[in-house]
């Protein structure tokens, strides 16, 4: 009887031990999965230069601005490899296009320390500034009540030197409207722009300078021209734009490829992939006739040698 009791107690103890081990393993597994899911995605360095400008109503002047922007982007090209951009950080390469175009911003090089959209948002919200005046619909709770909307956003492709349908230079244009207590309400804004490759993380590539909008005017569009220098594989990329009101911490308006086809699946690649391979052609003079002549000469020499020995 005692032996049976001891065996029963041993079985119970073993069962409890096994259950404890299984429970501990499950807890460790869940902890590991949770830790892995909270890790920040590792982003590879890239090199991209951008310049932003408020587009003028004059079509000819706007085209001139774009040509000046493209020229400066071609001249800048400071990083020819990912390694170079890692040391370049963020750099201003030109203060403006000309004194006649005060709305034109500096060229901005990005890529040394890539940031996701979540990291950029966290950076803004961590600053000791209040939330936007658009965060409440009660005008008496904010000094100046504004409501914002992005009326439209589009993109254009500019440079594809190897003609494979994927471009190294592109532009994004967007129109932000503001509504308030007065007609043609004024607001000072800036925007953060992101690229996403095939549904991947939104990676920040440009911060605009401060620009001013008036009501729902159609003459205050903002355009950002960008050249990708390195680190961008040949693929399709979506664009996302977050707009902030100056002096406030949260996003007042946003638009992405989910809302408009103009920001969807842009065919892009960096300039280190956008080149035409040189084909070296070696021409040989004489051709087949020279080979035939050499054969004939060889045969003639052999015949004469045989005659000599005979």
Structure notes:
This protein has helices at residues 2-37, 59-76, 82-88, 117-125, 287-309; strands at 47-54, 91-92, 104-110, 147-159, 169-179, 186-197, 203-207, 211-214, 222-230, 235-245, 251-256, 266-268. The chain is an alpha+beta fold. The chain has a six-stranded antiparallel sheet. Strands 6, 7, 8, 10, 11 and 12 form a six-stranded antiparallel sheet that branches. A hairpin with a 5-residue loop joins strand 10 and strand 11. It starts with a helix and ends with a helix. The model is unreliable at 1-7, 9-13, 20-39 and 85-104 (pLDDT under 50).
Q: Can you tag this structure with a few keywords?
A:
single chain; 310 residues; alpha+beta; six-stranded antiparallel sheet; 30% helix; 29% strand; elongated; disordered N terminus
